[in-house]
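Researcher: I need the complex structure. Ligand is zinc ion. Inputs:
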Amino acid sequence: MNRQLNFILILCYFILNTGSTFAQTNKNNNTTFIKAGKLFDSENGKILSDYIVKIERNRITEVGKNISIPAGANIIDLSDFTVMPGLIDGHTHLMTLDNLNDDQPMAGKLLFEGDALRVLRGSKRAKSWLETGFTTVRDLGDSGPFLDVALKRAINEGTVVGPRMFVSGPIIISEGGQVAGLMNKYRTVISDEYTIVRSVDDAINSVRVHVNNGADIIKICANNSPNNTSLTIDEMKAIVKMAHRYGKKVTAHATTNLAVWEAVTAGVDGIEHGYQISDTTLVLMAKKAVVLVPTDISEPLFHKLYDIIDFKWDREKNMKRAKGRYKDRLQRAIKAGVTIVTGSDNYLDLEMPQGEAAKNILIAYEEEGMKPLDILKSSTYLSAKFMGKENEFGVLKEGTFADIIAVKGDIEKDFSNAIYDVVFVMKNGKVYVEKE
Ligand SMILES: [Zn+2]
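Model: Output:
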């Protein structure tokens, strides 16, 4: 068949088929009304009562109190629950799950797992995030050679079930990556996992490579912990300049105060972890509107982790010390006016669905003194805003995708239980979880 004829036939089929789909849509009434007993206004961090959300196909078309519902309409009655935008986990590694008792998990991943098995396993984990109420994740590397882009495509086309993915591709990093103790002769394997930068020119080109391969955001390591090396400020500046030229944000893994300060000076948009940030650096972050993604651990997860590694030494004291540091840093950041974006960084096998383990990050913030509605705002509206997507998700308003969840219980007074009692999950207008 000649190619032109083929094209015309395909075009005709598309037009006819689209026409019939619309007709069917109207006949089947593709409009749904959600009755929300309580509704979380994520932009303003408030709970509203007795609201209705109107959804047409995959988008919200109206949110309000006095919306008339025509007879025979599709109604989802969530009057007994709190309805909110789907949660966003701002720091995931869907393609990685480390066994806590494995001395060299990186070797296992790079040398024995392989890309195909890795992405298949990642797809199962992706589903666990969606089922617990995360309708979007920001996946920040540890995902082999753009396997995150492949998984994102598979989810978007409906091949596998998972949250919306906003992906970085491999982490852009200096020599050695985050692989500690590897013999020099095997170093080429590191390039399977990371994009290694050895100069400013490399830095510039690395961004082009990532943009061409479908990265939504650029993730760098300002310091390579556990390795004791780092990118230079000039390399980071070159990355930021190129990324911004292509409309992409840059977020930096940075644990020490020096690494945070250098990354912020170079112009990054976000800081991941930031365990040791000083007050002076926090002031600089606030001034430059750089967000902080604190990837802390909740007390229940600490216990789980210590159980698995059979940690016998004074666990209460160790946990209290770690939590004290997390809390101090988080409270100082909030006081300095730094925007908090939530992110679990959960890549450890804690013997539960990984999405559920990831959700513990929200409990961790509450333990560290954040108010429930502030945590929810960070995990919805502010996370979406950091991605430049606040008109697409993270908020329930006209025009956004119908990414909606509902929880049972008192979200303000009993946050840690209610946030786990998810009774309803909808993504892009499709229901994935609906419990009585
Ligand atoms: Zn991480």
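Model: Summary of the prediction. The CA atoms of residues 13 and 365 lie 53 Å apart.
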